[in-house]
Amino acid sequence: MVRSQDRQDRAAETLNEADFRASTAELFQREERRKAKVAQIIVPSRRDDNDEGDNSGLGTLPSVFDYCLQAEGPDGVLKLTNFAPEEFDHVWAAVYPHLQGKWNVGRGKKCRYAARDVFFMTLSSLKHLGKWDTVARVFRIPPSTFQKMIRKFMDILSPILYEMYVEKANDQWTLGKIVRSGHAFKYFPYARYATDVTFQHANKPSGNMSEILRYYSGKHHLYGYKVEVSVLPNGVAINCTEHTGGSTHDAEIFRRNAAFHSRALHKHSSDANVRDEGKLQDKYPKEWAVLVDKGYQGMAREYRAIHPIKSGRLQPLSLEDASFNDELAHDRVIVENFFGRLKSLWGICSDKWKFDETSYDLYFRACVALTNVNIRLRPLRNDDGDDNTKYDTRLREIGASTLEKQTRKRKRYQANRQARLRTAYRRRTSLSCSIFMGAEEDCSDDDTQL
Asked: DDE Tnp4 domain spans which residues (predicted)?
């Protein structure tokens, strides 16, 4: 224990501006490479300040945030955390009162970094995390120690962020307030929010085949997780489900989240002045509508769900139906824009998930909440939706490439097996013939002797 503490002390003493600048350069390069991978995707055309004080006698290490601000400047803080220094301080001031009585309290070994610095390192991890040692190297902390520290901090931070910036947004933004603020959907003003599912690539799980197939997405030909997110017309997310396997149908995830949808779509007394003459109003007079995509066909039988009209076999859509689908896509694009912003901000949500499944919801929900903060500062744009389309296209290309490799491997195995069988057959045939010919020669010799 003493040796580990001395090692951390020596690491903190050697930290200086030059070292920090050299270390952060690698993170920034990784981010540029990650963005470059998405930017080069060609989308095919679509058809159809607070001081924490003394920690039980342990002195805190020099401020990591101050090192970054001194070495990289305000732009460096923005590149590391997605927030400018003033924005970072604003979020920290809101979060700190809730953290004060939960972090670094009780018995046991205390963290020697100030809570503000751990928060700073956590945001850096959410943005740049591909491997723990990559981010830990920047802060001169052993990877295992860094991982345990961030995970322990996330156990406290993630629920706080989700409650402050996601759940409270659901209570705050009623449809009446949305209409009065001028942010209602253009073509479907009687819809409160749009809902969709996002998929993230993950490692192939272990277990028997029935357990493994729960995580396989036939759409992407990859193993991963699905999460449903509901987004208001102003771009703020108000709900995020727990993750499920990639094979789960979107409509099934919606049904599992019935408690939220029933509560969120219910009309309140404050919405009495909002006119509702929209679709399915007669069937659901006490509910607002929700906008969904074509993966939710038939959901209107259970909820006031507005989904696109599908063309029948040999029956193309009429001009009226096509116009309806275009208007629905125009309003529903807000959730696609949210996914694009989420994945462009936080590398942990866009890169392949390589960590334990049990911690996935902690990190994903924290990223959703922090994306809400970012959207309040910088509203969503159409470019965000393009980023999401490129991300999804890239996943499909990875899945198609993986499937092609597996197909070639299977065909190569089958060809080799056929060759082995033919060789074995020829050997057995030749051996049988030689035995038979030898027997005939023995018989002829016996006849000659007689």
From this structure: 203-372
